[in-house]
Amino acid sequence: MGTSRQWTSLAKFIDTPRMADTASLSGGSLLLAWQLKDKTVLIIGGGDVASGRIESVLVADARVTLIAPSAGLHPLTKQFIEDYPDRITYHDRTFAGPSDLAGVDMVLTAIDDVDKSREICALAREHRIPINVADIPPSCDFYFGSQIRSGPLQIMISTNGQSPKLANLIRKQIERSIPDGAGEAVEKVGVLRSKLRERAPGVGGELGKRRMRWMIDVCTNWEMEDLALLDEDMMAKLLDDGWEKNRVPRLQEVGGAKRRSSTSTPKTANLWLSSAAAFVVGAACTVAVLLTGRR
């Protein structure tokens, strides 16, 4: 089965109510997309791990306060400091104490000193600031997973801090199963959803339910590659001939044409991935598509 068609089937399956496995409701974490836009994140340490943390929070539009001696800065950390002077406030020193936590919304430590890391953790919790301490899972209020990112599409694989390497290997397997243009499709659906809300404004009620049902129908009846083809004219026609008439037109009906070539054969998952992991990817992408722009 082609990957795009497989994802469409998965999307429909996700919309079907299922009974929860109540026997396994423990031992996990609550996976969230944390909104850090304009929040202040304190990062302590400037090495390899810290550079990854900096990249992650910059992607989330956070403001960064970085504390680390210049002698130990990773080349990528130095590059971030140079490239984002308006978003990174850098202090060439070690952590000074509680005063460094003033006005901070999140703390990330990535230093080799275990005792100092635990001290910072205790201070952060005393001030009720969420903290992640690299390589010390019991000192983490949350974990960093292995992430796949394509535009607004983000998928995280978490092992609850138990095996980051395995999470990375699983990520690579899952990444191979993602259809080309998935991130672009998410972005285009987000624009379409915004245009629909402009045409049919309001929160909740029957109108809100109808909007959601129609968006679900579009996402499940169109293939991922086709959603990525949407432009302004096609969206307008999709709303005129689709939303207004309570139907979902085909790609060709709104002026689109499928792009198919021998060099863009849909990618398929490895055999071991084709069931459980493929479902995880389908679930993640479907939720991202349906909820893009929801705040």
Helix-strand blueprint:
Layout: H1 3-14, E1 40-44, H2 48-59, E2 63-67, H3 75-83, E3 88-91, E4 106-109, H4 114-126, E5 131-133, E6 146-150, E7 153-157, H5 164-175, H6 182-199, H7 205-221, H8 224-227, H9 232-243, H10 276-291
Parallel strand pairs: 1-2, 1-4, 2-3, 4-5
Antiparallel strand pairs: 6-7
Helix pairs in contact: 1-10, 2-3, 6-10
Keywords: Membrane, NAD, Oxidoreductase, Porphyrin biosynthesis, Transmembrane, Transmembrane helix
Pathway: Porphyrin-containing compound metabolism; siroheme biosynthesis; sirohydrochlorin from precorrin-2: step 1/1
GO molecular function, one term: precorrin-2 dehydrogenase activity
Shape: elongated
How would you state the average pLDDT, rounded? Answer: 83
N-to-C CA distance: 35 Å
Structural class: alpha/beta
**Count of individual beta strands:** 7
Helical run tally: 10
Helical residue percent?
40-55%
How many domains?
Answer: 2
Described by strand count, sense and barrel closure, the largest sheet is: 5 strands, parallel
Order of helical and strand elements:
HEHEHEEHEEEHHHHHH
Adjacency order of strands in the biggest sheet: 3-2-1-4-5
Whole-number radius of gyration? 22 Å
Beta strand %: 5-15%
Poorly predicted regions are 7-15, 261-295
Structural notes for this entry:
InterPro entries: Met8-like, Met8_C, NAD(P)-bd_dom_sf, Sirohaem_synthase_central, Sirohaem_synthase_N. Residues 179-249 form the Siroheme biosynthesis protein Met8 C-terminal domain. The chain is α/β, with parallel strands linked by helices. It has two domains: 40-141, NAD(P)-binding Rossmann-like Domain (Rossmann fold), CATH 3.40.50; 182-291, no CATH class. The protein is built from ten helices and seven strands. The strands form two sheets. A five-stranded parallel beta sheet has the order 3-2-1-4-5, sandwiched between helices. Strands 6-7 form a two-stranded antiparallel sheet. Helix 4 (114-126) links the parallel strand 4 and strand 5 (131-133). Helix 1 (3-14) packs across helix 10. Mean pLDDT is 83; it is low at 7-15 and 261-295.
